[in-house]
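dude i think i finally got it to work??
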Amino acid sequence: MNTQKNKQDLEEQIKEKREKMIAAAEKYGFTDEETLKSSQELDRLLNKYMRFFRKPRMNDYPQIERNSVLI
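look at this
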């Protein structure tokens, strides 16, 4: 999987979704269902994008119990 391509695709999706949200806010207002839906979709895209920059933490890896027996 090409991580750089995925990141660039997400950047383009974020740009398009932001423009759609702004247009909806200008046309219908900030509290309209269409604006809020676009805002939530933009939030999901931004959260996904931010995962590219997150440093892994120990809790992100599977934990193995000390006394467990592997077969």
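The radius of gyration is 19 Å.
im so relieved honestly
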